[in-house]
Design brief:
The chain is mainly α and 286 residues long. It contains 13 helices and no strands. 54% of the residues lie in helices and 0% in strands.
Length: 286
């Protein structure tokens, strides 16, 4: 389906205004083109929400990955995660994923049934017919395979991922930004208001469902569950709040154990509860 945006751009290019934008479009009303778009860019684009979204994303990317020793950052974790996911995608789709020589010598890094996905069902379907429920069910089925649990925990649901998905400020900023952009779109194409509102409502529901599923990933049939505890150091949305709030059972035990481990600092360096008495920075225990 060709959208009004595509039609508008095409007609603008072919307009009599020197091949530029359509400066007499209906959405402008009595306002000239420049005034309208200056107002949109300066006053209507949700810059505050975009700023929060970028700040929270960068804070999560640049915090220390406390699942790892040393000073590894979360952006390194996500790079490895997406690289692995892309290699698995190529492997599943018949491609030839590139693997570094030093990694190749170590042998297979993951069982085939954990790192290979059956796309045949989706290949036979039209893109428009593939629903969110179809994709979600396929992902859940894979994540609930018992002997894939440790691999998926380390590869996809480390503390860096947990920091992102537990960051409610980031989640709200993403939704507010999308809603603000949608409002601008509806003003330009008022005839599509109902369709646009229905669409964004649907996508918000998918987004919330996906986030809630990731925050509490459990499998009733196999008993598989995942620890989604944010990194215990660095800037994250949790602040001083209890990172284990809302968890129960196995996840709560893992989270509490992890939190206690993160609270033990190195002597007098002040990063945990075992500082040397009240001297210097070490007295501020976790």
């Amino acid at each position: 389906k060709t959208s009004n945006w595509d039609v508008s751009v095409s007609s603008g290019i072919n307009a009599e205004y020197g091949g530029g934008f359509d400066t007499s479009a209906d959405y402008l009303g009595e306002v000239d083109w420049k005034t309208y778009w200056v107002d949109v860019v300066v006053n209507r684009v949700p810059w505050d929400d975009i700023e929060i979204m970028i700040e929270r994303t960068m804070a999560n990317l640049c915090q220390r990955d406390t699942d790892m020793k040393g000073d590894s950052k979360c952006y390194s974790y996500f790079y490895k995660t997406f690289t692995t996911l892309y290699q698995w995608y190529l492997k599943s789709s018949g491609g030839n994923p590139a693997v570094k020589k030093n990694e190749r010598s170590r042998g297979p890094s993951a069982p085939d049934h954990c790192s290979t996905y059956d796309f045949s069902e989706f290949m036979e379907m039209e893109a428009a017919d593939i629903s969110f429920a179809d994709i979600k069910d396929a992902v859940v089925d894979k994540f609930c395979v018992e002997d894939c649990e440790n691999l998926y925990q380390a590869t996809f649901l480390g503390c860096c991922t947990a920091s992102m998905i537990q960051d409610t400020d980031l989640e709200q900023a993403v939704m507010d930004t999308a809603e603000g952009i949608a409002e601008i779109y509806v003003d330009i194409y008022p005839e599509e208001e109902e369709e646009a509102e229905a669409g964004i409502t649907e996508y918000f529901e998918y987004y919330r469902e996906a986030m809630n599923m990731l925050r509490n990933p459990t499998c009733e049939d196999t008993g598989v569950s995942y620890d989604v505890t944010p990194c215990t150091e660095g800037d994250s949305a949790g602040g001083d709040e209890d990172a284990c709030a809302g968890l129960s059972g196995k996840q709560l035990k893992i989270c509490n154990k992890k939190s206690k481990k993160g609270g033990k600092g190195k002597g007098g360096k002040g990063k945990g509860g075992k500082g040397k008495g009240g001297k210097g920075k070490g007295g501020k225990g976790g």
